[in-house]
Design a protein that fits this description.
By secondary structure, the chain is an alpha+beta fold. The protein folds into 2 domains: 40 residues, Pemi-like Protein 1, Chain: D, CATH 2.10.260; 35 residues, no CATH class. The protein has 3 helices and 2 strands. A two-stranded antiparallel sheet has the order 1-2. The chain is elongated, with a radius of gyration of 19 Å.
């Protein structure tokens, strides 16, 4: 775990190893008791393609499957 401190202007500097691993752009997500930094890919479309490279179903098939599972779960 790394630690970072705000400077007197309210800026947060992330450790070099964090920036090298995750990049330099982040979404800041406010949770009820903390904040979370979510890395933003330099090329979000490429990152999305990589994430779903092994998926063989179409978007329509995935939506239908999710809909059926939601209906089944709601009926339980």
């Amino acid at each position: 775990m790394s630690e970072a401190t705000l400077d007197n202007r309210g800026r947060l500097t992330l450790p070099k190893e964090i920036r090298e691993r995750y990049g330099e752009h982040y979404y800041i997500v406010t949770l009820h008791d903390s904040v979370k930094l979510v890395p933003i890919a330099d090329n979000p479309l490429s990152a999305l393609r990589e994430e779903f490279a092994g998926v063989e179903k179409t978007a329509h098939e995935l939506r239908e499957e999710a809909r059926r599972e939601a209906i089944d779960e709601a009926g339980s």
